[in-house]
Amino acid sequence: MNAKRVSFSLVLLVVFSLFSCTEEKTAKKIKLGNEQWAVSRAMNYLGKVVLEKNGFDAEIVDADIESIYNNLNSGKIDLFLDTWVEGHSVYLYDFKDVEDIGAIYKGCKLGIAVPSYFDVDSISDLLADSASYNNLFYGEDKDAGVMISARTAMGIYGLNPEIVYMPEDQLVTQMELMVNQKQNFVAAAWIPHWKNLKFNLKFLVDTTHSFIENDEIHKYARAGFQKDYPEASALLSKITFSEDEMSAYLLALEGANKPADIEARITKWMDENKEKTAAWVK
């Protein structure tokens, strides 16, 4: 092949590549499912911000966890970046038309926690004096994985507290109120979450093995997403956090629950951590 043909071929390759990237970015809006949980907001809004910084059009779709997987499976949404591989296994088993884009965080844990000043160390210790915590258990939404495990564990231990179900933001507010007043409480808890550090929570020892102790958060997409959006998939696959990075990131978003505030804080955090986020923005 002579030099002119080689040069012409290279030009065609560059033009084709540019056209492919442009076509990918001008395709329909990428929809990310989001449950109103702190970690879900942190992960999915981060995905939205990263996609938009790279020229993609993205949108957050709020829904409950079962609807998110149902819509991901049917292709009504494109992404969910807060899949707990073991914690959400019941949904992944039912909804198989999804693609794993890789881990975003390793080392998740579910459990029952109390404030550090409450003198109990294991779930079995709660049997001794239920009046010390008013025989109340503050929990998440009824269908959350941590709540399914908590009900199982309490049944095995013979505990029968009144369970107070509430949205995550309300649960966090309740914890803050009781910590400020140095009141004992027993609540559902999980890692990662900024509340563990801020409220100095202590996870209780569980000998029933009802709780997941080493889960991973992965980025999941609808079937065919990686083929339709190879550049977006490659960028999202690079988003990962260590334990310390995740703690700092979640603390930066503490209390943010309105879209504009969440995105503003994420942008600020990315600007302040360019060494970490440079690979996410091309």
Number of helices: 12
Strand content: 15-25%
Name the CATH homologous superfamily of the largest domain.
Answer: Periplasmic binding protein-like II
Number of strands: 9
Q: What distance lies between the first and last C-alpha atoms, to the nearest angstrom?
A: 34 Å
Low-confidence stretches are 8-20
Report the sheet with the most strands, covering strand number, pairing sense and barrel closure. 5 strands, antiparallel
Helices, strands, pairings?
Elements: H1 3-25, E1 30-34, H2 38-53, E2 58-62, H3 65-74, E3 79-84, H4 89-94, E4 98-115, E5 136-139, H5 145-157, E6 162-165, H6 168-180, E7 187-191, H7 195-198, E8 201-203, E9 215-222, H8 225-228, H9 230-237, H10 243-252, H11 259-272, H12 274-277
Parallel strand pairs: 1-2, 5-6
Antiparallel strand pairs: 3-9, 4-7, 4-8, 4-9
Helix pairs in contact: 2-11
